[in-house]
């Protein structure tokens, strides 16, 4: 029976980096298939994962919210029957809702034997507050449904800022194990153990007292297995789709605490009286280009500085690309709000650029790069 690990996380959180670490350090000898579901027109990551001997199914036809029921379900069944893997890692779109991914996998599990092994969310320790405020409908969902939360870039954050991020995450998920140690101080095996087992210390104490970690009641040890992953499926249907977490039974009380013209936490500006449920493609857009143009490294550095700090191109949440330089070498870039990285890359069939964000200004982006 194939284990399913869902590794979610907002745009640029570090999902692919985590997956690479797990493949290299913890999953050697296992037959692993990775299913990526990219939001946007261009998938940049597939190449080096294929180089590592990992089968990659990229689905660039749309956001995960839209493609889950059809493409995703059939792709997952095909992967199970064709490859018979020990483990399937699903890397959803950075703007996908984890609850949608879990629901889709459960739907496939009715027809194919699958073990829903872990639901993980990777979160950038520096950006939790900003993403919760602006895109809470999507971001908070990824946090709420996670069995464990793996914070990235914790080594670059002051302790008080890290504590603030953990406190914000705890407001949306009281029980998940949260990894705050920098990844380079942990082995892939340690991270995988937290993903699969959660907070062992709490579990051990509860088991000593024969207290069920899910419902809090006193049970024999056999009863623990009946719950399995049920705690991931708490009824979130009653939760307001804006991500503010109130129960619809208390709508009238809750509205007294809101200015009715207040902008929804998802950043769409709708009134809280209207409990809309958004698909990712209603809020996020992508712009992508393929180009043979050769770039000067200093010129590209200037472009990325503007893109990471200037909101005149829309709210840029992620940009990736691989481009050839004037001296014939290839470079890859990776950008999230406020920061970017340029590194050496290997030749691709053509230069490629992808930008993802909210309310993108495509003409301005075209002018910036070309």
UniProtKB/TrEMBL annotation:
Top-level taxonomic group: Bacteria
Domain CobW C-terminal: 285-368
Matches recorded under Gene3D superfamilies: CobW-like, C-terminal domain, P-loop containing nucleotide triphosphate hydrolases
Keyword field: Chaperone, Hydrolase, Nucleotide-binding
UniProt entry tagged with the keyword Hydrolase: yes
Catalytic activity: GTP + H2O = GDP + phosphate + H(+)
Ranges for region Disordered: 220-240
Domain CobW/HypB/UreG nucleotide-binding: 6-179
Family: Belongs to the SIMIBI class G3E GTPase family. ZNG1 subfamily.
Protein name: GTP-binding protein
């Amino acid at each position: 029976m194939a284990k399913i690990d869902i590794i979610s996380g907002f745009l640029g959180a570090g999902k692919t980096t985590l997956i690479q670490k797990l493949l290299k350090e913890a999953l050697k000898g296992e037959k692993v298939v990775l299913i990526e579901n990219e939001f946007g027109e261009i998938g940049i990551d597939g190449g080096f994962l294929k180089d590592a001997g990992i089968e990659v199914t990229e689905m660039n036809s749309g956001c995960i919210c839209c493609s889950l029921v059809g493409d995703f379900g059939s792709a997952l069944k095909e992967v199970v029957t064709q490859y018979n893997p020990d483990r399937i890692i699903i890397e959803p779109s950075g703007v996908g809702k984890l609850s949608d991914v879990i629901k889709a996998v459960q739907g496939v599990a009715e027809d194919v034997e699958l073990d829903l092994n872990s639901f993980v969310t990777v979160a950038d320790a520096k950006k939790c507050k900003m993403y919760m405020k602006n895109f809470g409908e999507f971001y908070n969902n990824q946090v709420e449904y996670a069995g464990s939360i793996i914070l990235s870039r914790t080594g670059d954050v002051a302790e008080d800022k890290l504590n603030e991020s953990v406190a914000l995450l705890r407001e949306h998920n009281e029980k998940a194990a949260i990894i705050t140690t920098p990844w380079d101080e942990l082995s892939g095996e340690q991270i995988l153990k937290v993903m699969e087992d959660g907070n062992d210390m709490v579990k051990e104490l509860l088991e000593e007292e024969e207290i069920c970690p899910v419902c809090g009641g006193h049970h024999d040890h056999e009863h623990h297995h009946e719950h399995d992953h049920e705690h991931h499926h708490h009824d979130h249907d009653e939760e307001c789709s804006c991500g503010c977490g109130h129960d619809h039974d208390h709508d009238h009380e809750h509205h007294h605490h809101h200015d009715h013209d207040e902008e929804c936490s998802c950043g769409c500006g709708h009134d809280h009286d209207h409990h809309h449920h958004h698909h990712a493609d209603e809020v996020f857009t992508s712009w992508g280009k393929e180009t043979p143009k050769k770039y000067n490294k200093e010129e590209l550095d200037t472009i990325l500085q503007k893109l990471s700090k200037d909101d005149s191109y829309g709210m840029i949440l992620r940009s990736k690309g691989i481009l050839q330089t004037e001296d014939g070498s290839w470079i890859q870039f990776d950008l999230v709000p406020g920061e970017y990285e340029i590194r050496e890359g290997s030749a691709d069939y053509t230069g490629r650029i992808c930008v993802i964000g909210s309310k993108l200004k495509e003409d301005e982006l075209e002018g910036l790069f070309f």
